[in-house]
Give the backbone structure.
Amino acid sequence: MQARPETVHTSSKNVYKEYILKTEKMPVVTGMGVGMKIASGKVHVIPNPKDMAKFKKGEVLVGEITDPDWEPVMKLAAAVVTDKGGRTSHAAIVAREFGIPAIVGTGEATKKVKTGQVVTVDCSSGDEGVVYRGALKFEVRERRFDHIPETKTKVMINIGAPEEAFKNVYLPVKGVGLGRLEFIINSYIKIHPNALIHYKSLKGKIKAEIDALTQGYADKKQYYVDKLTEGIAKIGAAFWPHEVIIRFSDFKTSEYRQLVGGELYEPVEQNPMLGWRGASRYYDIRFKEAFGLECLAIKKVRDEIGLKNVTPMVPFCRTPEEGRKVVALMKDFGLSKEQDPKLRVYVMCEIPSNVLRADEFLDMFDGMSIGSNDLTQLILGLDRDSGIGAAIGNENDSAVKQMIETVIKKCRDRGKYVAICGQAPSDYPQFTKFLIEQGIDSISLNPDAVIPTIMEIKKVEDALQEKSRSF
């Protein structure tokens, strides 16, 4: 048996692909474009998630809106088009992480195109995405960056599904700024954790579905821990020795209900985006044991597998009091500095209270990662799953920038880690410039934005250095 460094993919890591449409026709539908790419394929309109099994690889997925339940077919799609949603909606975020073009917030795609039609999805021109009829000709120009410059600002990557880690490990990044447990739960586990915890009391169809998915596991809770461990470890191992930040689960109630058994344990909320999610779940008696399984998985990755580069992060933590409850609970489940001296724990900065009470949050957490998607919607009163407010404002709004400037300064004054893992740097070069000027430690990007953003960061850093010399 021979072992040697892999060489097949290394030639492509310094290549940035530019997509150029050669011919145009009258648009069928337009919306917000995501991904800077062009793709053609047969349309497959999916009005109901139950119809997803009929979807074929290479088709263009068209639907009203997507949620985590759609991710298995999104991986197969040539492109995604939705009626609803904004630039930071589920469809937009996941499509970018999977490296496929998406057009969201079209308003009428499901009415304007029909299953079986061939269309071209063009997201190459920037903010606006256009759907054309037919397979139009386009060119892909490869720009080689034979020398990727070193930047003072650390560049990291956002990773969803674990298999995306090995696909993107060849990019010139220094770790993972955001790894999402939701992808692992939805794609690998598929079962609500409470249904596994209370397995013995279940009957009928739900129990049969669990039996089919957990063959070989007498202990159903161990199935959950093992699958989480496997997914986290794949990401941690791919980017070793660089830091890999894994966010604890941040499903909303509407998303948890889509898992097997989910309807037994999840309330129906009018606005799940602002409901029972993030930190408020973890210490709740209804979810505490399920959160413990997540802690056990991260502990297993760090202690048994030895991937000490994996760092947990707490999302949507509304108050410092909530933060203290979560940190205490993590300790109960074996995740604490007393038990693991090298452990660091971060908190997402995505609620105005995280900024206004930053010092109190930093008393218990080792740093903050700015979730610009949620922070923007809560500052401006927008719904990021709706396209209605898209014209009102985005991360470049001065109110958002003032909040981000404040939290970066707070973290720097305290000597704490401060990063960003939201969409903004991937979408807006001018926003990246702003972050560097404020002295942010790390910027985490979607895979398709890594190389061009590194070049932009280097230009900004050189300009700032030259400016400082002139004084």
Observations:
- DSSP finds 19 helices and 17 strands in the chain.
- The chain has two domains: 10-143, 151-470.
